[in-house]
TrEMBL record:
Pfam families: Methyltransf_23. Residues 1-20 are annotated as: Disordered. CDD domains: AdoMet_MTases. This is Methyltransferase. Keywords: Methyltransferase, S-adenosyl-L-methionine, Transferase. It comes from Streptomyces albireticuli.
């Protein structure tokens, strides 16, 4: 089935589909990648994690199994129904106001590449609002060649993910079409993405009061950012 989608986003296939084109049944069956390993290497054991855009809990479950205390946030109640072992909060990320801080805020799934700069600012400000001053924000970026050499595909447990196309639709924004093929079902998803240079990404962090601490992977797709305090912002002025 398909449902009313956000502009530039749509999904097809069995089961419920969220406004941004994500199929709930698909995301429940997709295997986890290296995300839990990246998190575990980058943060203290047993940290309190705020996972933004958790979906059906693909990453949530292994984080809980590794001893992290996770608060999982998603705007889709149907996605959250699949999450196990974590506190769940149903809300758009940009509007999230939990009145608490976390050791780690996790913004994965390339959410920072949303096509709308206003939404990106909202996402990063939510990260800054909820991270402890001595905590960190882990962000997943697109690989530099994500929109090149298409179509391409990769096998996952029991199925195939095929990135069919990535076409420019307006300055700086691309429309990406992906197919998910399994023996018993097939889904498609079309969504908008705004590629970001390293400079543009770091500028967006700075605007939200964050700064890169380190790039965690060789391909620079995973980043650990830290909050910039008012005192730190004032240091350059004091040195003049």
């Amino acid at each position: 089935m398909s449902v009313q989608a956000r502009e530039g986003h749509q999904g097809t296939g069995p089961g419920a589909i969220t406004p941004d084109g994500c199929a709930v049944e698909l995301y429940e069956r997709l295997p986890v990648g290296d995300e839990p390993d990246v998190v575990e290497r980058a943060v203290p054991a047993g940290a309190r994690v705020l996972e933004l855009g958790c979906g059906a809990g693909r990453v949530t479950r292994p984080l809980v199994e590794r001893g992290f205390t996770v608060t999982a946030v998603d705007e889709s109640p149907r996605m959250l129904d699949r999450v196990r072992g974590a506190r769940t909060v149903c809300a758009p990320i940009e509007e999230l106001e939990l009145d608490e801080r976390f050791d780690v805020v996790l913004l994965a799934s390339f959410l920072v590449h949303t096509a709308d700069p206003r939404v990106r600012r909202g996402l990063l400000r939510a990260c800054r609002r909820h991270v402890a001053d001595d905590g960190c924000v882990l962000i997943q970026r697109e690989a530099a060649d994500r929109h090149e050499n298409l179509p391409r595909e990769r096998e996952v447990t029991g199925g195939l993910i095929r990135v069919v196309s990535s076409e420019p639709v307006r300055p700086g924004v691309r429309s990406v079409h992906v197919e998910y093929v399994f023996p018993d079902a097939r889904w498609t998803q079309t969504f908008l993405s705004r590629p970001l240079t390293t400079e543009a990404f770091e500028d967006a962090l700075a605007e939200a009061g964050l700064a890169v601490d380190t790039y965690l992977t060789e391909d620079r797709t995973w980043v650990r950012a830290v909050p910039v305090t008012a005192r730190q912002k004032a240091v350059p002025d004091q040195d003049r």
